[in-house]
Design brief:
Its EC number is 2.7.7.27. Involved in the biosynthesis of ADP-glucose, a building block required for the elongation reactions to produce glycogen. Catalyzes the reaction between ATP and alpha-D-glucose 1-phosphate (G1P) to produce pyrophosphate and ADP-Glc. Homotetramer. GO terms for molecular function: ATP binding; glucose-1-phosphate adenylyltransferase activity. Belongs to the bacterial/plant glucose-1-phosphate adenylyltransferase family. This protein is of the alpha/beta class and 420 residues long. The protein has two domains: 276 residues, Spore Coat Polysaccharide Biosynthesis Protein SpsA, Chain A (Alpha-Beta Complex); 107 residues, 3 Solenoid (UDP N-Acetylglucosamine Acyltransferase, domain 1). The protein is 22% helix and 28% strand. It has ten helices and 29 strands. Strands 1, 4, 5, 6, 8, 9, 10, 11 and 12 form a nine-stranded mixed β-sheet that branches. Strands 17, 18, 20, 21, 23, 25, 27, 28 and 29 form a nine-stranded mixed β-sheet that branches.
Length: 420
Amino acid sequence: MVEKRIQPLARDAMAYVLAGGRGSRLKELTDRRAKPAVYFGGKSRIIDFALSNALNSGIRRIGVATQYKAHSLIRHMQRGWNFLRPERNESFDILPASQRVSETQWYEGTADAVYQNIDIIEDYGVEYMVILAGDHVYKMDYEWMLQQHVDSGADVTIGVLEVPRMEAVGFGVMHVDKADRIIDFVEKPANPPSIPDKPDFALASMGIYVFHTKFLIDALRRDAADPNSSKDFGKDIIPYIVKNGKAVAHRFGQSCVRSDFEHEPYWRDVGTIEAYWQANIDLTAIVPELDIYDKSWPIWTYAEILPPAKFVHDDEDRRGSATSSVVAGDCIISGATLHKSLLFTGVRANSYSKLEGAVVLPSVKVGRRAQLKNVVIDHGVVIPEGLVVGEDPELDAKRFRRTESGICLITQPMIDKLDL
């Protein structure tokens, strides 16, 4: 790998995070919040990964486009990301869909969400734009991607993942030549094109794009003038450049940030209940695939001032204990037993209750003698005394949102409907 330039390109770049999507596959978890605002990893939100990657890469100008049920997301960013200072040539702009172009027009697509804020982008006068999705979990140094973009002379550089070929059917797939120049872009193909040097693998788009700013603005204006365009990067902007310009793939393995404990590049789209549950539970492993304890690449977030976690009672059948679990601050485990579970801040687990494979969002109260296995519990839910989940699949499916593999999502409206 080539050495970084003495003058990082990130200093002259702006990160623009697309965070307006609902994430409907997360079902009731996104009834009150956009997918990027969903909690992850004990104290963070999903969007913190893209924002932290930008900050840790050296990018000091950041914009976030919001749209769907954005209050929770905006409040989180106002509280946790207000440390960037204009007097240090830094900026953090929250850009809700506010009908700035037309009184009847919200953001109509990912490209339109950038196009409507061109004047703000131009005011900063940055040389490069890094367009990011705000709903994936990964650690990446964007400086390497910026350098490849400049060195290759590309019109657009696209972040890609190497995935087993037939697992790429749900992605936008890049067909590249031996130099990683993209010669075709196929959306969710039935027969994905393989990588020239790895025939059993395909290159899936990560939704990360690097442009020279002037080129991007010209492309957005051209696309906005096309009445047949859906105003989307993946459907319109990128295919046009692949056909008429130079598009180059950047492989995630070249810029993935890994600590000494991470052996493989880690990237997750936690867009389903099962994937969300699994990625959180994975953090309870002795050596998890994602190292959130790596101080050299911190995941910045809103850090509440909270008391430490507390475990009380030490009787034979009433012992506050946790094994293979992650427990955040302000949790009180009062005579409850946890195994392979992840608890966010402010959870109260009361006596004789047992949690196994539980992802418990902030401020949940678990009643006495509750038995909960393989669950995701939404923010603020009050679990009734003696509730059992994870033993009777048919009953669970009637009461809660149950996946095929048996993960149950529990929300307060579901609890309120129970006849106990």
